[in-house]
Amino acid sequence: MRAVTYDRYGGPEVMSLVEVPVPEPGEGQVRIRNRAAGLNPYDWHIYRADPALARTFSGWRTPGERVLGADVAGVVDAVGPGVIEFAVGDCVYGEIGFGACGDYTVAKSAGLARKPQSLSFTEAAAVPMAALTALQGLEAGRVSEGSRVLVIGASGGVGHMAVQLARVLRAARVVAVCSGRNASWVAELGADRVIDYTRERVEDCNEQFDVIVDLVATSTFRALAPLLDANGSYVLLGGIGGGKILGPLGGILRAQAVGLVKRRRVVQMTAKVLASDLTRIAAWIDDGRVRPVLDTVFPLERYRDALDLLEGGHVAGKVVVEVA
């Protein structure tokens, strides 16, 4: 089978599309015939070890031999011992950590769900990590009926899901922050107002919110705090820059310190891979309430072009690699 592999930290140049053995599923695992892989900033943070803190869970000296790609959509090809949720032939999608950019992969069945019926495999591969992060972030921020929600970084993978899922969770008002070139389609996803950060400072928007979801951390929480209701939540789910050692962690710690001083709730969380949440998301997709937006789709052979686009930082929606 073909797979995009790497065994040392670096950029796309350390990867190769090579032939490797077809994996066999173990206890609680299924083998998936991959049809498409969704790429996320997570992927390049891991393979570049940027920030260095990423090495603490991916391997301090080397990452070991890895196959690129955390998000997958495909067909169950074999079932390991103890698996009762799926059978050969089931169409599934999920977040698996590594292994999506190959013809086959094995994954724990507990982290997979049935693919949304209304989506192609290519579209489904764009969903898992982004939608899980957005949904769990919104729920950790206590979004509920009547909430006023601000999404900063609304045209990215997580951001465009957050705009839609805030509506699913019955937010009364959703304000999105992105560049003007993406404003029209972000508005179509359900944003009541779109702030073009190239022309207007979000700090000057003259609104208050119950939940602020920040995907970029280009404004400090100190500057954003006046926009947050006294009982509201600032949910920090990502950040641009932040240094080679700690990355976004430095901004998270500063935000938490400001939250203590200003008595505002600051939420930082890492999404969990829950089949129950993937099933909920699939239902909302099939109901027409949520849809993934794809920036560019590449064939597996052009994985380096896909990664170059991903690392450029201006992806509108998601980048997907078609495997089969």
Molecular structure report:
The chain has 324 residues and is an alpha/beta fold. The protein has 2 domains: 157 residues, Quinone Oxidoreductase, Chain A, domain 1, CATH 3.90.180.10; 139 residues, Rossmann fold (3-Layer(aba) Sandwich), CATH 3.40.50. It contains 10 helices and 16 strands. Strands 3, 5, 6, 7, 8, 15 and 16 form a 7-stranded mixed beta sheet that branches. It has a 6-stranded parallel beta sheet with strand order 11-10-9-12-13-14, with helices on both faces. β15, α10 and β16 form a beta-alpha-beta unit. The radius of gyration is 19 Å and the shape is globular. It starts with a strand and ends with a strand. The relative contact order is 0.17. The mean pLDDT is 90.
Q: Report the sheet with the most strands, covering strand number, pairing sense and barrel closure.
A: 7 strands, mixed
Q: What share of the residues does DSSP label as strand, in percent?
A: 25-35%
Decide which structural class fits the backbone.
Answer: alpha/beta
CATH topology of the largest domain, by name, is Quinone Oxidoreductase, Chain A, domain 1
CATH class of the largest domain equals: Alpha Beta
The CATH homologous superfamily of the largest domain is termed Medium-chain alcohol dehydrogenases, catalytic domain
Number of helices: 10
How many structural domains in the coordinates?
2
* Cα-to-Cα separation, first versus last residue: 11 Å
Oligomer: single chain
Compute the CA-based radius of gyration.
19 Å
